[in-house]
Design a protein that fits this description.
The structure is a single chain. This protein has five helices and four strands; from the N terminus they run E-E-H-H-H-E-E-H-H. The longest helix is centred in the C-terminal third of the chain and has 23 residues, at 117-139. The chain has helices spanning 24-43, 49-56, 60-68, 98-113, 117-139; strands at 2-5, 12-15, 82-83, 90-91. 54% of the residues lie in helices and 8% in strands. The protein is mainly alpha-helical. The protein has one domain. A hairpin with a 6-residue loop joins strand 3 and strand 4. The structure holds zinc ion (2 copies). The site of one zinc ion has 8 residues, from helix 1.
Length: 142
């Protein structure tokens, strides 16, 4: 047994085991919240963290903590609140959504395959400009 500060409220409490990080009051509250989230997930298997937070009142940070410590099954949480660094769409893991990851990869491949992507774009623009001048000329009856 050791005297310890509660990780949540800071209150001094007697820890009966080394894994005990919360005082009895907070431990009970933590268990309550955890059960609430578990119950919610049972009925809403496809819930996002935002939805869980709204429905149970449990902080997002707390849900992440449970996922991180393995208490909450990560597979049961559809969306951890991560977003794609490119388009901002919610994603499950990594830095980009599937679409952006594919686009970034194919862009990288294009640059590698075609050494002069800028020149190709210019040629296209010139051709479009030529067509425009051509149709104007035709409309004016030249
Ligand atoms: Zn406490
Ligand atoms: Zn994206």
């Amino acid at each position: 047994m050791a005297l310890r500060n509660c990780a949540r409220c800071g209150k001094l409490f007697t820890a009966v085991s080394s894994s005990m990080k919360l005082c009895i009051d907070c431990e009970r509250e933590d268990q309550d919240q955890f059960n609430k989230v578990k119950e919610y997930l049972k009925e809403h298997a496809a819930a996002t963290v935002i939805e869980i937070t709204k429905a149970t009142g449990v902080e997002r940070k707390q849900i992440y903590e449970w996922v991180k410590t393995g208490r909450l099954d990560i597979a049961s949480v559809v969306d951890l609140g991560l977003s794609c660094e490119s388009c901002g769409k919610p994603i499950k893991s990594g830095r980009f959504c599937i679409e952006c990851a594919a686009r970034i990869e194919s862009d990288a491949r294009k640059v590698l395959a075609d050494g002069k992507p800028k020149q190709g774009a210019d040629t296209k623009k010139d051709r479009a400009g030529f067509h425009m001048a051509d149709s104007i000329r035709r409309r004016r009856g030249y």
